[in-house]
Write a structure and sequence with these properties.
It is built from 24 helices and twelve strands. The protein has five domains: 32 residues; 104 residues, Glutaredoxin, CATH 3.40.30; 232 residues, Four Helix Bundle (Hemerythrin (Met), subunit A); 174 residues, no CATH class; 37 residues. 54% of the residues lie in helices and 6% in strands. A hairpin with a 3-residue loop joins strand 11 and strand 12. The protein binds flavin-adenine dinucleotide. The site of flavin-adenine dinucleotide has 27 residues, from helix 11, helix 13 and helix 14.
Length: 664
Amino acid sequence: MYINSRMKHFGLLSYLKRLFIFFPFCVRGCVQWLICALSVRLSSQAEVSSFFETNTSQYLALVFEKPDSYLGRELTLDLLQFENISVRRVLSTEQGLVAELGVTQFPSCYLYHPGGNFTRLEVKAEARTFYFYALQRLPGVVRSGKPPVVIDVHNNKTQEPWRPFNSSRVYMADLESTLHYSLRVELAAHTVIKGRALNPLKNYIGVLAKYFPGRPIVMNTLNSLNSWLQNQSQDEILYKDFKEILDNTAQSPDTALPRGERWVACQGSQLHFRRYPCGMWTLFHVLTVEAKKAEASNQLEVPLAMRNYIHAFFGCRYCAEHFDNLVRGSLLENEAVLWLWSIHNEVNSRLSGALSEDPNFPKIQWPSPDMCPECHNVTKRGEHRWNKDKALRFLLSYFSSNRILPDYLEDETQILAKQREEHASRLLALEAEKKAERRVREAPDLEIQPLPSNPTVQEEEEEEEEEEGEEPQDEAVAEGEEEEGGEGAVAAQESNPWDKPEMAGGERSQKVRRKPSIVGMKIRRNMEDHIVDLDLFENQHFKAKALQLAASSRIKRRSLQRKVEPEPGPVFGLGMELDGGVGMVGLQPVDADFDMDVGQQRKWLQKRDLSPTGHWMSTLSIGFSRVDVSLCVLLYFLSCMCLLGMYTFFQHRFRLRRVKFSMS
Ligand SMILES: Cc1cc2nc3c(=O)[nH]c(=O)nc-3n(C[C@H](O)[C@H](O)[C@H](O)COP(=O)(O)OP(=O)(O)OC[C@H]3O[C@@H](n4cnc5c(N)ncnc54)[C@H](O)[C@@H]3O)c2cc1C
């Protein structure tokens, strides 16, 4: 009996649970059906002729079809989220309109313009995909709430100059920019690369050295990185050692990877759109195609290297997780080119209309019917099918190394000259430092004070707090310095967002240790000192930048507060919120002068990604000064007192009334 009732109870519970799970889907289905039923309208000649008197749409798309066709309904649903276009079904039985336009083919689509004229929509096949693609690309048709960004072709001071490009070609400048970003910025967030992250790095550099179709100077760099990595027998490497090979500090001839980013086909209409993630996709498509052409014995080498690199290092952890799940769920076919293409299309379909989508470069199922009409097939029932053989042929040609355009590339001799200059100035700085140290040693009466000559923003803020009579809160920097190479050291570096871009690993700790001698010199600077103290100069320069940045980021944070904060969205490298995030800060800062460096990226990764609690804490405390908080507490206290006062007042009145009542 008891068991029976328990069973019933259990059955009811599981029923409720199921209901709870499926309820949202049922509601969604019903809502979609309702929307469809309400918005799919049959049009008559009378309605069409008066359409523009009551509507502000720029176009009216008339889908002429047989009564049993679903095309008009599907297109109405597809285009519901677009502005400036309306869709109407016109049945073949609607004699008036059919005769007026002389329609003989069902289905077919006609556009009705405000001027009163009709034009037939030309598509390769009378099918949903083709119609949808053609209609959403009509001038003026935009996704609701996403107006296209007007690209200012003429350079304005805050944006990079727009580089005109051919949208059906791949550019080497994008690929080199991706390498620069990946190797100098993304990897630099990891002071020590060890354990399970080391193999992905080795494989990534391995496939780059094998298949990257780069210029000789870049290939020399990739090859030296690859052989250096393969010779590392320990299970960890320091990023700063990796960087020395990358920057060719040994000055091997004709070896360099250009610095900086020059996005061309991966340019976005705003600085937070496209760029590095676009470059990453392009790079991996190129590598898979090159591996295929080289008839590599292991066709999975590139997809696996990509998956593991993304998993271990990709700046947008949210994207990496999604990608991981996608790859796990997909069949890693032997045909790597097609595999990556279909995975990419799945990502495109998920992100279509998301906040991270550049309105000027909408996410589509790629290649579009315009780019490769033969890649698209339509079944007899009007369904879309990919022609995979044609798609493979298209991909092999599109990403082929001999079609990659060299436009906008920095000249090789310039790159090498710059590298030599940098090397020379680095040597000069080292020499200056050594001289300074020698001077300190030779002058024993010098008072050595280990003052930090490069205060971080955090330290600045602490100083401010100390001035206000409060204790500094964070001692991570000091602790980190003591534990070089350990977690503390990482924390110390991560807590300093204004580190120089090329400073990583134990380098900073070493620098801090060297400081006393230089700081000591600072006190006696009045003595005619001809040594150029580059450290001091750089410190001042970075400090000024840091303060400027801190001010601008404070302003940004305050303005962001006014927006609705969604769930913590994915953080892309330097803080790009994608796919449901706010989409506020890009891979490149909004101000071109504002060089986001390694330290900043570390701070972003640490604050916004690696530690979700930290993210929320920082989100909660954004923009509230101590005065705000005190005012809040004061107001809270006053309202409590007011409530208490009212309560006692009414209690007193009621008591008086009760007394009066009992007396009478
Ligand atoms: C591994 C990975 C995972 C990501 N996950 C997310 C995520 O979860 N959320 C998020 O918001 N963003 C994510 N991104 C970023 C996102 O996919 C886009 O890269 C970014 O929004 C820029 O889009 P885009 O318009 O430049 O085109 P991209 O999708 O970056 O494509 C770059 C270029 O590749 C070509 N192309 C497009 N589709 C295909 C295809 N199917 N096959 C071959 N070539 C194609 C086109 O020429 C296109 O211009 C991810 C990026 C990567 C590399």
